[in-house]
Amino acid sequence: MGSIWVVLVVLGCGILVLRYLLKNVNWWLYESKLSVKQYSLPPGDMGWPFIGNMWSFLRAFKSSDPDSFLSSFRSRYGDSGIYKALMFGNPSVIVTTPESCKKVLTDDDNFTPGWPISTIELIGKKSFIAMSYEEHKRLRRLTSSSINGMESLSMYLTYIEENVISSLEKWSNMGEIEFLTHIRKLTFKIIMHIFLSSESEHVMEDLEREYTTLNYGVRAMRINVPGFAYHKALKARKNLVIIFQSIVDERRKLRDGYIPKKSKDMMDALIDVEDEYGRKLDDEEIIDIMLMYLNAGHESSGHITMWATFFLQNHPKYHQKAKEEQEEIIRKRPSTQKGLTLKEIRQMGFLYKVIDETMRVITFSLVVFREAKSDVNINGYTIPKGWKALVWFRSVHLNPEIYPNPKEFNPDRWDEHKVGEFLPFGAGTRLCPGNDLAKMEIAVFLHHFLLHYRLEQNNPNCPVRYLPHTRPIDNCLGRVKKCSSTSM
């Protein structure tokens, strides 16, 4: 019996020693090299060797309580608002307060984009998420007017409205549908028109299907093994590149030395642009930028449109208030006018509060990545040069000190908010250039839905999945029903 106890004690001690060693591997790899600076790092936990905190992150976001990931940091290390971790293969500092998030997003002298290698490999090494500040500034200036300029918004409004009207009519005759799936197809068709003017239905279906697979890999661990999300996403990217390359080749062939005076769409603009030295973008640059824009331009709009519709349906008071606003717009419209105008869009004050509140509650992009170009001090803690700074939007948008009852949908709370407290499109020089277009697109859909339709969900209490984006697991299965202009 004595020898058995000795063995058990030795085994127990061995396990404790092994656990201690494993938990300190990342300290040796990343923190010990910092010398005295390690003592000014934020509190936190670097997790297990190599995988760091990714298991706990994925476990939380695949559960019904995604915020338990950060809650565990707060419970163990206090409410400092800034924590060290090993995320997506990199030593990182998670920032969670409005002030620290604003600092990281707007300080271009000390921070540069720091997206994980896996994300860059999927979205593109020559896309906005990877290019230098100077190159980003130049290309943003070129492309943003094609998306958010007043002339562009006016031009796109008619196309968006026509497709919203026809899609809602079609869906109301289809019976049971996956509401989210069809909205995503609609927003993809719209963004395809804006960036590529028009492509065949077959090409659009192929692109949309590949983009869906790509998105599942963006937040996954970088495991390039068959069966894993990242491996599937890499294959999807290859297929997308092939499709885009064929489109670029066709556009160049049509030109045959002739450059039109005015670009027809974003693809034309990227093919035609040249800098002060006469340098044009090569095919890889064009494809990566297009791939990034098309991905960002339909996923966020589609999901937020679905959730805004969902919230309005489940909050009759806000539904009625939003509907009355839209009916008032119609009443004031001249009898000769056909369709919405930008002036009317600007009059949708409450509807835009609904959209903002939806973006806050859902927080489509939960985190943005930056990398410290030098040692940076925030709130008395050091973010070392080369470490990633993870701007955790969910923690800001769901902070009860900023938004009382933060998980409650309440558009009336949007009388005002301070800079840094609302970050659905980021902030600083890399603020999403398509924010005005996205919100207009959502507003047009809600305008027509509120006036003429209702959604009957099969399962209003359907469980929610949080990766890669927040959505009901049944994709909001239900029926779109026509209704009179005076009934809900």
From TrEMBL:
Its cofactor is heme. Heme binds at C432. GO terms for molecular function: ent-kaurenoic acid monooxygenase activity; heme binding; iron ion binding. GO terms for cellular component: endoplasmic reticulum; membrane. Its main location: membrane. SUPFAM superfamilies: Cytochrome P450. It is a single-pass membrane protein. The keyword Oxidoreductase applies. Catalyzes three successive oxidations of ent-kaurenoic acid giving gibberellin 12 (GA12), a key step in gibberellins (GAs) biosynthesis. GAs, which are involved many processes, including stem elongation, play a central role in plant development. Belongs to the cytochrome P450 family. This is Putative cytochrome P450. It comes from Lupinus albus (White lupine). The lineage of its organism: Eukaryota, Viridiplantae, Streptophyta, Embryophyta, Tracheophyta.
